[in-house]
Amino acid sequence: MSTPHTPLEPDVVTRLILDTDPWLSCDDCFRLVDTYVESLLDDAGRDLAERDAMSAHLRGCPACLEEAATVLVLAAEDRGSDPEAALVHLERTIDPSGRPER
Amino acid sequence: MTTVGSDSVGTAVTFSGDWTRALSVPGPDQDEAMRHLHLLLLRASRTQVLRMRSSLGPVGSDVVEEIVHQAADDAMMALLGKLSSFEGRSRFTTWAYKFAVLHAATHVRRRAWRDRDVHLDALDVVPDRGATSEQYAEAADLADAVRQAIDTVLSQHQRRILLALVVEEIPVDVLADRLGASRNALYKTLHDARRRLRTHLRETGHLADPDQQAGTT
Ligand SMILES: [Zn+2]
Questions:
Q1: B2-113 belongs to CATH 2.40.128
Q2: A71 contacts on B by Cβ (under 8 Å)
Q3: Which of A9, A37, A69 is facing B136, going by the closest CB pair?
Q4: β-sheet bridge partners, residue B16
Q5: C-alpha closest to that of B127 among B97, B99, B90, B168
Q6: ipTM of the predicted structure?
Q7: Helices B92-113 and A62-79 sit at what angle, rounded to 10 degrees?
């Protein structure tokens, strides 16, 4: 016997059960975020395991994502790159449905 | 190395030389480097605060500037304390930005939430504020399973932290402040809770095995 509930919204369900492996802490995310955004801007391979862990963390941690996005914007501006394009690249990289850019 | 950027008001921020050495050795170069670093941190702090400005509600530019400067000052202290940990894996400027961005974002979130109560003990059950649209019907089975799993397979602490962060969308640093916990510890609880839910939902057949589910969730 259970009380009927209105269903949780699909995007909330997605975020509740998000796969955020491989594990990375917020402190490690802060430690790595500068090299991570530069690897996105340079499209350099660097350490793929590290990049996967960063992407997983940013998927699951809105605060770190909000901060990483700004570091990316600033670094893009320094390079004369388009910050908006860089942000789209970041979103695609951390997209849980595809994980396309390995 | 010459770095060129601009501060918030468009003033060029340029510095030629080795940042870490200039910042470490007392003298005129250090003073110059400090001045440029502060401008660079102001620019980063202002960028972050402006990106989050809507979360502050109707505040004046004086409040915005106060946060920008406070965050830049805090970031300067934090960065100088960590200077020896800079390994040159990124540009110095990118490394420096993250300190200002972290402090600015934390200040904005704290300010945005300062008049809002956080009651974790109200989060022992999944709040009822879900979807009503017919279009969600096919997702309702998974949503019900998730709701049930939250009730049954998580510890009370995991449940409260998961619901606070994901459903109530309380920022992790704000929640950490209120609970006297660390951001790391709360994120670890969230990570473990999500992993536990996923394991359970695989056992009940609501989620495919990881090997089979690429691109399906
Ligand atoms: Zn985080």
A1: no
A2: 44, 94, 97-98, 101
A3: A9
A4: B2
A5: B168
A6: 0.89
A7: 140
